[in-house]
Predict the 3D structure of the following.
Amino acid sequence: MQKQIDIVDKYNRPTGRRLSINEAMKEGAWHRGARVVICTTTGYVLVQKRSPAMVTDPGYLEFSVGGFVDAGEAPEQTAIREVREELGLNLGHDDLDFAGVFRLRRQWPALHKKGRTFSYVYIAVLPSHEIDLTLQPEEVTSAEFISTHQLASLIRRHRIKSLGRLEPTYRYYRAILSAAERRMRASRKLS
């Protein structure tokens, strides 16, 4: 049986319904997701390349780690779980700074799927980009830290030749890059 997720209404209020991820995307039902932008005090952001085995956006780049909020799970728990599963990185609640809830709509007509997500975004600022990661090959092919300048260029141009193409959620990515930059500046001041 596929994992169940809680369905919310268009105002992000619980409806009491639960569906599998596949059913929710076929129906276009609103649900919750959690994402973590992992950056450093020195101005680097982690970018990962999605596995070619992924159903949606295979092989594309993204600069947040995350996934669906499982039924009964809090978004912050999802964020911590997803970072551990995808990257082998153990973060705690104190490592996450809540950046906001972003409303995302995506469609994959060839797959007959619609994503309608309230994405809870968190920022995790690490002291260095020199860390060991254990990638989950079913979801992540590669991961590397790039400068915020390179990331801004990636969002503007939608690709970096040596890395690949960014998932097509550019306005969302511009907003969360701004939140990450604010958090990195604040962390540098505290250091």
